[in-house]
Amino acid sequence: MAPTRSESAPEKLGIGMVGYAFMGAAHSQGWRTAGRVFPLPLRPVLAALCGRDAPAVRAAADRHGWAAAETDWRDLVARDDVQLVDVCTPGDSHAEIAIAALEAGKHVLCEKPLANTVAEAEAMVEAARKARERGQLAMVGFNYRRVPAVAHARRMIAQGRLGVLRHLRVTYLQDWLVDPEFPLTWRLQREHAGSGALGDLGAHIVDLAQYLAGEPLVGVSAFTETFVRERPLLAGVSGGLSGVRGAGRGPVTVDDAALFTGRLASGALASFEATRMASGRKNALRIELNGERGSLAFDLERLNELSFHDHTEPAASAGFRRILVTEPDHPYLEAWWPPGHALGYEHTFVHQARDLVAAIAAGTDPEPSFADGLQVQRVLAAVEESAAKNAVYTPVPAPSTTETPSDPEVP
Amino acid sequence: MAPTRSESAPEKLGIGMVGYAFMGAAHSQGWRTAGRVFPLPLRPVLAALCGRDAPAVRAAADRHGWAAAETDWRDLVARDDVQLVDVCTPGDSHAEIAIAALEAGKHVLCEKPLANTVAEAEAMVEAARKARERGQLAMVGFNYRRVPAVAHARRMIAQGRLGVLRHLRVTYLQDWLVDPEFPLTWRLQREHAGSGALGDLGAHIVDLAQYLAGEPLVGVSAFTETFVRERPLLAGVSGGLSGVRGAGRGPVTVDDAALFTGRLASGALASFEATRMASGRKNALRIELNGERGSLAFDLERLNELSFHDHTEPAASAGFRRILVTEPDHPYLEAWWPPGHALGYEHTFVHQARDLVAAIAAGTDPEPSFADGLQVQRVLAAVEESAAKNAVYTPVPAPSTTETPSDPEVP
Amino acid sequence: MAPTRSESAPEKLGIGMVGYAFMGAAHSQGWRTAGRVFPLPLRPVLAALCGRDAPAVRAAADRHGWAAAETDWRDLVARDDVQLVDVCTPGDSHAEIAIAALEAGKHVLCEKPLANTVAEAEAMVEAARKARERGQLAMVGFNYRRVPAVAHARRMIAQGRLGVLRHLRVTYLQDWLVDPEFPLTWRLQREHAGSGALGDLGAHIVDLAQYLAGEPLVGVSAFTETFVRERPLLAGVSGGLSGVRGAGRGPVTVDDAALFTGRLASGALASFEATRMASGRKNALRIELNGERGSLAFDLERLNELSFHDHTEPAASAGFRRILVTEPDHPYLEAWWPPGHALGYEHTFVHQARDLVAAIAAGTDPEPSFADGLQVQRVLAAVEESAAKNAVYTPVPAPSTTETPSDPEVP
Amino acid sequence: MAPTRSESAPEKLGIGMVGYAFMGAAHSQGWRTAGRVFPLPLRPVLAALCGRDAPAVRAAADRHGWAAAETDWRDLVARDDVQLVDVCTPGDSHAEIAIAALEAGKHVLCEKPLANTVAEAEAMVEAARKARERGQLAMVGFNYRRVPAVAHARRMIAQGRLGVLRHLRVTYLQDWLVDPEFPLTWRLQREHAGSGALGDLGAHIVDLAQYLAGEPLVGVSAFTETFVRERPLLAGVSGGLSGVRGAGRGPVTVDDAALFTGRLASGALASFEATRMASGRKNALRIELNGERGSLAFDLERLNELSFHDHTEPAASAGFRRILVTEPDHPYLEAWWPPGHALGYEHTFVHQARDLVAAIAAGTDPEPSFADGLQVQRVLAAVEESAAKNAVYTPVPAPSTTETPSDPEVP
């Protein structure tokens, strides 16, 4: 038989990606897989991968299936076969690359946190606003919204299953900095990472909390702490979490942990903890919401499960139930495996790719938007301000009239 | 055969108890049972029970096995057959009764929180100090220290199994106020209860956190909230959680929830949440401690279990283990059942009775002392002060030189 | 005030107990406590305790609160102040004592398994039948029916929440024989214990399975095994699980483990495993029932919880829920603590005492009856027969016409 | 820059796959992804996909990334660009296709169960033996061996962490047949599926039990049951679990459930349950092994976790620990994400592809072999024989001298 690609195959969408460490690998898996699992209106093509180290980026391109490799992101942004630029670099280059890509007429997907400062994030939102007028889309990569259990929780909350919210408690606990000999990678340097656990982990949980609650944080009270102030220097440039150790020690310039509390617009009380020093907790993003009619709880270490208590049931038969979020009518599950067959971490990137491609084809606004990313950035800034001022309650500025945070979509 | 009581039976210790609602029932079970399970140096005798309603207190005395009933606590305190006064009333009468009992030469066990104000607690500590010179003892009823799993956690921490502490997170979540029609009992009135979730639940978790960590909280940042501001009035006087509803509604004058963060003396970060509005959480006193060498977690809803992660193990075989705290060499377990046979809530009162009787016989200081109760009271006051001042960081005053909080004993 | 015992105090019910080891301690706690927690129509009085070793039984009587001590069970049975004989001895003396007590006009509570052989159990049932005509009652101590979560499960099943049953799987796993140096106590000797894990643990799970399902096992296929064939001899007589080691080793004459499968009357498939060799499992009595409309699961190591899946719910929100069986309308809970306050192992004996006292006062048949105990004995005999015959399917004989196993009562 | 594929790219390995339903999709994901994540010595190329329905297979090929489509498996087997044939059809065609592929000089991967009968499986083993002499490899797709937690369990057992085994208990519980209106798909017809839950689920757990224990089952006692004897007919041919309903009902000719017990070569007792009627259990493949030195437990519904109890620890600090099997030195994890980032179901197929490609490049025997698949088939046949003979103990025939089941490799 002849080759099988049929006449009606969808049009291509050329992807160019900057960065190829942890996030680069995860995004590659997303772009490669989305169209194999979901019927997509456009066919993502892994056009070109960009990184500064030519042999390394070439090897990464081969490994992950990218057709070409670039060493200057400006060249990537200029390529004709690239319609979407996916920014997977450390936070200090997000604004420059994303804005340039938008100005070059590309759609943009940018890793979280959106930027290292509120000012950068504001510029990005403005660039996205202008690009939107030209039909380009911009999305920030809060991938955990696309864990099926999280999306299903959002759906249940939108349906009113929790009623008026009273409490949120959210943690994101890891332990890779417990060892004082863990070296000083870019993630521990303010100039590259912007902040530490706060931007890396705290950004995720602030976004998730606001997404699930369907309302913003209006103010916070915060502590941050750097428990280990100096760490071994790395000899060379480091990608991802690892690196080669060099001589001597250098100062850690970001937080190891951030602990903050606050209020949502509705008056609900919320608590947040982001840390890399919680021994034995590997990826414990946990969220619990208590409302007048019910409660929901989620733990990223058991990401196929959602815990739900229906407070309207008779007390004698009520209790937190473990919903295995693998049923065909759970979000994203229609395309995967039969009930009970678990998904994993990287599926969130497949779902992110699916949703962004669908939005591009439909011309609708993808979610979370850059404005959503900016709002998270403002919360993080308020956290840092409060931590610097004896934990005093610090309001989170409201969006300006030209910014339009998404109405959280019901999946 | 003749009656069996042998010549060498231990001397009696006459107990007089004030209050016979929830705590009264639990303490009765403790006094009745301690000497049946543990070999005690003194034999507790349930001498007299006191309450204001004569027929009710007489019925309660019959039910719970008290030899006599009194309607005025002054009469109880004056009885010759009473050597120990057990104060189980609401917080507004703790100081008056406990101080009178100490001045009358009795040992005193006082329910938590020690008092409704710092000033009352200070007076109680002073009264206890003077009574101590006469050989009388005073103890505050933070019974959860005597859950075997908690005592075992204390032992492990004292042995250095966690190393330097980095994080504590503690919650005490209940849900009996979610229903806005739950009536206005004494626990919701400031003049009787002092505070709401803060004093009732928060006092427990502050004490537990400091007991387990082996160090005090030095400052806090806090929110408190009353979500339901008015509730149905009760027709009459109410004991415990229930009551008869009357006409109309009255104001709730205590907090429904308290959310606070802080630092321990060592610099560890701590978070606390006490609420009666967490749908589906019935008695979720949860504590987790993360240290450089390990972590421990406990949940009162599964009180026979302790979760432990040993961070010194190779990563490939490390993980949180569920220790079933029912082995003969776990605290208090030598006298109970074979491994795997669960204990329950009221066993903490049996253990409390055992330890207090043993201290009286030995003339040693029981723990937690009134000074420990005062220190908790100061934390609660700092929480209220911070909550009133925009959550600003509020130091907890250090003990005066005449107060001597216990060195937490290793069980 | 005068002593408080009021005129209308309930009549006494004198208890005489034989045996004072593990079960004796647990039953003592039950008899002492039942009337302090539940309003009882008769007042249990701990009249006399019996054991062969005079000083030991005297000390035990003092410890546990028995008024008198006896060294010959015939003397105990003959006492006028004893109306109920509670048999807590090893299985080889159950029949003799229980029958004598019934013939002496006493009510009888007999520990499980009812007897060491079917013939003994049949004689006991016949003695109970005759005694019943004289108004005396007989009950066998399958105390786990009185775990509130188990009783609540029975209630839900009786209400049809599971529909037609398809599967039962039941285990009772302990690990105290894993150590080959654990000594040869009476529980490891056929002449005293009748069988090993089968009679000790298997009897419990056979009774529970039939009680919950509301129907009998009709046949079984079985393996039994003694993994450690010789163990150190004990120097003297041993009570309970412990003892003093003597010289040399002797043969273990009972099973370490029994593994069997079978069918219920309705055709549901059932599997059972009883073992003392499951490392790390301390008291893992686990039962799961799957029906057309739902499933229930229980684990004695978490005895305040019941796990329930409602199969009639939409799949997207269905899942096993953890019911904390501590609500006031759960069985037995009306008299205990507020929601979320755990009960323990020995509460089952309090509940057993309550129910038996209530039955005596009302003249109704207590449950489980001796006929229920005989039926379990027949299952155990069928297990041993199948194990001896290459696991071939072995029917369980139906009750004779004079035996009347209880219709499981809905609690 | 020029295209990136470097000179030293590995040689291609052309894959031809038969079947494109559930297993086809999962295998496609495995073949597509393995080389993107792991450095492979050969590059798998998705050469051709085969199915009987031309438009459907063409669409599936497009979807899953296969270069060509075939409608006759004989044509697929004959293709020059195919070096490995992957058989994902129902069991009734495994033998014919696999033997033809081996005779045509191809490597073969065959889905489990290896065949529908022992005779077919024997013929396949013989064909594989001959092909091996020509350098071709054959592997059976027991993919669950390649869940990292399972492979890690195997490693721990091989290291002696459990000591002498005493007990295995294994279940594979699903619930998709609880609804009596679920239609009569091929999986419910003996002529296509060979058996029901037994071959589909039971084959997995028999293989896993023997793989983990490192020893075979030597005999079994069994029950099988078909609870729902008739089901709605499907109108047309059905792929996977779904289909279009037709008129009327037809007989279910396979088991809904199989319950069996047995002994391992070492004398350990084992129990197995495979069912599609366990309400609320979606994919509950659970295995627990108890040995003299420790225990391990695994649940496929939480596939990133392994539960381990170390019985050599002091009892006071021992307990089942939850190992999150996501560390870099866990099997297969060196190539995936940082600790705590979960893998999912389909990763097992990626690992299977990796291991098979590595074996082909190295010329070593892949595991599990066809002989391993035949041994499982013999266990299934013994189960059916025992079930037909009143559950009598039925030995599992030993391998003939020309069959060589794998020594389970330590991952």
Automatic annotation (TrEMBL), chains A, B, C, D:
Residues 14-134 form the Gfo/Idh/MocA-like oxidoreductase N-terminal domain. It comes from the Bacteria. Residues 151-296 form the GFO/IDH/MocA-like oxidoreductase domain. Keywords: Oxidoreductase. InterPro entries: Gfo/Idh/MocA-like_OxRdtase_N, Gfo/Idh/MocA_oxidrdct_glycsds, GFO_IDH_MocA-like_dom, NAD(P)-bd_dom_sf. Pfam families: GFO_IDH_MocA, GFO_IDH_MocA_C3. Residues 390-411 are annotated as: Disordered. SUPFAM superfamilies: Glyceraldehyde-3-phosphate dehydrogenase-like, C-terminal domain, NAD(P)-binding Rossmann-fold domains. This is Gfo/Idh/MocA family protein. It comes from Streptomyces noboritoensis. The lineage of its organism: Bacteria, Bacillati, Actinomycetota, Actinomycetes, Kitasatosporales.
